[in-house]
Inverse folding.
DNA sequence: TCCCAGGCTCTCT
DNA sequence: AGAGAGCATGGG
């Protein structure tokens, strides 16, 4: 349940919303934890969010802003408990779901998700964050003390040379191609949501630098295609380790993407524990 | 110095 | 269709 008071929005806690896990599972790159509070930007708005024993607090968020923005952003209308029952169909998936319980698949801005995961390729999460931060500071609209994610039009107009400030190497040309195609309408992001999954994936892969994995991440995190199952190095490790060559993500249908996120988080979690 | 990081493009079979 | 080199940059 949600209630509003003191200009804050309060979400009564259950097991299926953890802000730590949601922001620590590598799906978005613009939230940072500082002293128990997450501070970040989405859809051109800044959000401060923190978790107490019995509730999650969205600071300085009106009922109107909550209902029109953050409710969808955190995918709060979805029943993750029911989904987890579908995902828990073998021992590995069940363990992953238990460890990952509380992750919610954010419904991010389409362009931001696409652009962010183009940057993510063959890259590590701290540097991805750094590049995106530089991208926003250099090209995003200034909103008080922070910057919005830059529009495709702005990046297309800036040109590929100016993107060199990002120090993102060969990805600059990919960002530029995406910005160009989106800003001219050659790629219509709004229309992607109406497509079938396979068509949507092929459509996005017409952008230079967008392969199967980046397309799946964009579709999962930006377009709510919950069956998209991005196969990155971590997931390939999980599959090799626990499932083998016969693995088929359709066993989690239609929530492969959520299962993928659980397995991704689980593998990183397990590896983190092994390191200690 | 080499290896790795939420991979993709290009080339060669 | 499938395998492999090359690719910018930075951290360990």
């Amino acid at each position: 349940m949600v209630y509003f008071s003191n200009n804050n929005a309060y979400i009564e806690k259950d097991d299926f919303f953890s802000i730590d896990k949601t922001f620590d599972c590598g799906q978005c790159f613009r939230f940072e934890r500082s002293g128990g509070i997450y501070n970040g930007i989405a859809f051109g708005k800044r959000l401060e969010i923190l978790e107490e024993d019995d509730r999650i607090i969205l600071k300085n968020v009106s009922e109107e802003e909550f209902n029109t923005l953050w409710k969808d952003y955190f995918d709060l209308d979805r029943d993750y408990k029911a989904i987890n029952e579908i995902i828990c169909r073998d021992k590995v998936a069940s363990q992953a779901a238990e460890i990952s319980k509380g992750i919610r698949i954010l419904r991010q801005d389409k362009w931001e998700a696409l652009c962010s995961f183009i940057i993510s390729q063959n890259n590590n999460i701290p540097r991805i964050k750094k590049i995106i931060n530089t991208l926003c500071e250099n090209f995003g609209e200034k909103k008080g003390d922070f910057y919005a994610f830059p529009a495709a039009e702005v990046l297309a107009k800036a040109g590929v040379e100016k993107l060199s400030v990002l120090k993102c190497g060969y990805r600059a040309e990919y960002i530029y191609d995406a910005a160009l195609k989106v800003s001219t309408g050659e790629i219509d992001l709004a229309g992607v949501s109406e497509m079938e999954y396979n068509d949507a994936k092929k459509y996005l892969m017409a952008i230079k630098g967008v392969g199967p994995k980046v397309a799946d991440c964009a579709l999962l995190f930006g377009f709510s295609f919950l069956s998209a199952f991005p196969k990155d190095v971590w997931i390939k490790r999980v599959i090799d380790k626990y499932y083998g060559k016969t693995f088929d993500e359709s066993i989690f249908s239609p929530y492969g993407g959520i299962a993928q996120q659980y397995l991704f988080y689980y593998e990183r979690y397990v590896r983190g524990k092994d390191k200690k």
